[in-house]
Amino acid sequence: MDLNIGVDIGGTKILCGLIDHKNGCVVNTVKKKTNISNDICQTTAKLIDELIESSNVTLSQIGKIGVGAAGQIDRTNGVILSSPNLRNCQNLNIKKYFENKYKIPVSVGNDVETATLGEMTYGAGKEYRDFMCIFVGTGIGGGLVIDRKIIKGASGTAGEIGHIKINLNGKKCGCGKNGCLEAYASRSAIENNILNAIKNGENSYILSLIEGGNKKITSNIIKKCVEKNDKVVLNALSEASDYLSFGLASIINLINPQCIILGGGLINAVDKFYNMTIEKTKCEALNIAIEKTFFAKSLLGDNAGIIGASLL
User: Fold this and answer.
1) How many whole angstroms separate alpha carbon 156 and alpha carbon 143?
2) Which of 96, 188, 236, 307 has fewest C-beta within 10 Å?
């Protein structure tokens, strides 16, 4: 059975894909915005049903379902233990739900872990033995690979770069703690800084794109503002890149990886944010530590998570 279903459940969207796991080819995808007030399992099941129907395949042709979900995961039992960006999913057994519904094997991992697995197998990490993937989105997640193995840690939460501390008694993070990197450098943090600047009287082109605050600030909207050289947006990006570069430099100093792979909607959409972060990181890391560290963008883009999930 060469076809698997990969599911990526993130804080912004749920993406389902039909994957040929022998070569990583994405046959078809369907997606929906994440609504944490809805039942995540039911919403995802409807997407899986839509994927199967629109792909003209039957369930008997699917080998298994792999799910990558934002948060801390009990991989053995397929449970979302805790997730700052999926707040109604604490102790949610998604493995049991999907195995009962579809009667095929289901594997569950962290969403950035699965994206890292995708990049390691078919993407930007193919040529490296030691690297780290960092994805900037609703939050900031990381996947650490040492000697071609994803490091999960004693309790399965290794790689949580978004929750390293960068500011004593700093901003409140979605995890409930203070001073975490993702409270300063995620797309959500950038959005908050932009809206606060507007609230304080600064003028921005972004207001015309979000209809006075009625629409969410997406990565593509930020990209359009950068193209217009919008001062408010550029300032928010610059501040976020300062903090992100501190986090990346700390990782480089600590584990000295061959490569740092950056991904997520904001990285993919806004070259300026990627480039300024890399340049600042090179200044912040120890000279010898960074001497042999390369930087790369995710090659698989939004599909990294579903491709990796299909390989679980």
Assistant:
1) 11
2) 96
- Cα dihedral sign for 197, 177, 272, 227? negative
Of 281, 280, 273, nearest in space to 248 by CA: 281
Token reading at 121:
């197998």
Facing residues of 26 across strands? Answer: 19
DSSP 180: B
What is the rounded CA–CA span in Å between residue 308 and residue 312?
7
- In the three-class reduction of DSSP (H, G, I as helix; E, B as strand; rest coil), residue 85 is classed as coil
Phi, psi of 245 (to 5 degrees): -65, -35
Sorted by sequence, the CB contacts under 8 Å of residue 248 that are 6+ apart come out as 134, 260, 277, 281, 284, 285
Q: If you search the block for the tokens 């930087």, which residue do you land on? A: 295
d(CA 24, CA 159): 24
With tokens 């770069």, the residue in question is 161
For the chain, which domains are there? 3-117+303-309 (3.30.420.40), 125-298 (3.30.420.40)
Distance CA 166, CA 13 (A): 28
Q: With pLDDT > 90 as the criterion, what percentage of the chain qualifies?
A: 70
What's the pLDDT at 270?
Answer: 92
Alpha-carbon span 120 to 125, nearest angstrom: 4
Q: Please state, in angstroms and rounded to a whole number, the distance separating the CA atoms of residues 255 and 289.
A: 9
Average model confidence (pLDDT) across the chain: 91
Instruction: Provide the strand spans (E) within the chain.
Output: 3-9, 13-20, 25-33, 62-69, 72-74, 79-82, 92-93, 106-110, 131-136, 140-146, 149-150, 259-263, 294-297
Other beta carbons within 10 Å of 100: 10
242-268: average pLDDT: 95
Identify the three-state secondary structure at position 65: strand
